[in-house]
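Module 6 notes. Inverse folding takes a fixed backbone as the condition and produces residue identities as the prediction. Think of it as a translation problem where the source language is geometry and the target language is the twenty amino acids. Below is one complete input and output pair. Work through it position by position during the lab.
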């Protein structure tokens, strides 16, 4: 394992990141170009790491992806006996939003994600499953969600808030749209602290600049920011051990996806596919830097 030392102040970690406008523009392009291909990853449209635990099959990716959604949903603490409204910020094809709707027949779920193929696919799956009454997926930016103040019982985000240079800005919007006592639950990767080992820092820079442009926020910084926003019961649970099997799946799936692309087009479209491979392999490398990087479920409650 890598040894961490006091190398890198928070500001320097933030400085290496692209400007927010470029990160969002990249994500929009990427999920338009490759959005529908995430079906290879999960037929239900879930584009996130899965939750594995003893007793689950290591190969059953769909079960692990579904279980991650369940883990996030259960932490929202929703009642089953009355109508509730939940927003999914960065919903993609809406896999988690549909699982919530099926588990809570009285719930209305509003998914918000960058417009493009992934969101269109989500609409199609929602229609096919007969869930249009409960689940609406809309195109938009989670820094400016088109939702009224104090209008939701829960806000969730699954592996989507890492496209924010300042994750607390999305939590600020979540806080705004939550009703008093409402809960926010987010699953994503974070830096464990703001001074990663130089090797981790190098891998992170490659992952950010040549992979998905995503950003890792230091955990302690986020905790302080959530408390400053006025959230209560803030918990940041380390669930890294549960996601390891699907990190391995990500490497295999990215390789398979690009090989299939090459075979079907009889050519290697390096520009189109390079960042997918770089991202998948550097994600696995970062996962090995376990002292510096982890995968977490962040949950908090808006004050009554
Ligand atoms: C890895 S996918 C996860 C999608 C979905 N939450 C899931 O678990 O299947 C990341 C998502 O973040 C969304 N995203 C990135 N930046 C965004 C922004 N500024 N506003 C809204 N959505 C954003 C993308 O559109 C993409 O769907």
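Target side of the pair, the amino acids:
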């Amino acid at each position: 394992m890598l040894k961490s030392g006091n190398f890198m102040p928070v500001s320097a970690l933030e400085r290496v990141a692209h400007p927010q406008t470029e990160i969002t523009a990249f994500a929009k392009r990427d999920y338009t170009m490759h959005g529908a291909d995430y079906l290879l990853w999960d037929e239900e449209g879930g584009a996130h790491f899965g939750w594995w635990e003893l007793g689950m099959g290591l190969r059953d990716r769909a079960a692990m992806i579904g279980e991650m959604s369940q883990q996030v949903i259960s932490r929202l603490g929703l009642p089953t006996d009355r109508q509730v409204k939940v927003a999914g910020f960065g919903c993609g094809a809406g896999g988690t939003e549909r699982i919530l709707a099926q588990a809570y027949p009285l719930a209305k779920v509003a998914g918000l994600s960058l417009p493009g193929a992934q969101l269109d696919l989500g609409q199609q799956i929602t229609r096919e499953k007969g869930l249009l009454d409960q689940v609406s997926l809309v195109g938009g930016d989670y820094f400016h969600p088109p939702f009224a103040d104090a209008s939701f019982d829960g806000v969730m985000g699954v592996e989507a808030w890492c496209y924010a240079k300042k994750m607390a800005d999305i939590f600020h919007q979540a806080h705004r749209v939550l009703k008093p006592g409402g809960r926010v639950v987010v699953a994503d990767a974070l830096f464990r602290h703001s001074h990663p080992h130089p090797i981790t820092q190098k891998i992170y820079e490659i992952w950010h600049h040549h992979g998905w442009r995503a950003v890792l926020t230091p955990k302690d910084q986020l905790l302080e920011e959530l408390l400053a926003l006025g959230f209560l019961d803030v918990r940041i649970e380390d669930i890294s051990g549960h996601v390891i099997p699907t990190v391995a799946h990500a490497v295999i799936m990215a390789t398979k996806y690009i090989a299939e692309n090459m075979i079907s087009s009889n050519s290697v479209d390096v520009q189109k596919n390079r960042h997918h491979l770089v991202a998948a392999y550097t994600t696995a490398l970062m996962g090995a830097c376990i002292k510096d990087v982890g995968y977490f479920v962040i949950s908090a409650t808006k004050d009554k």
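Reference fact for the lab report: DSSP finds ten helices and seven strands in the chain.
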